[in-house]
Amino acid sequence: MVELELSLPQIDLLCRTLGAAAAEGKQIFGCSMWGSGGCLIIVPKIGRVSSMEDQARVREHEVAHCNGWKHEDR
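The structure assignment produced for this chain is given below.
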């Protein structure tokens, strides 16, 4: 598993480019995808906007996706 830490605007743009979706007006806080090198997870950088706890919650959610979990409504 590879982890990439980005700012929230970078995450939103990159994850949408990779196919992630969010409701109208909602921001994407992280995403994950499988590639030839394994699972890539993208999480927020710790800083003014995102705390260690925020990053840990997003990481846990995205690792679950890497392990096969899917959203119920998709």
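Interim note for the steering committee: The first helix runs from residue 8 to 17. Strands lie at 2-6, 31-35, 38-44.
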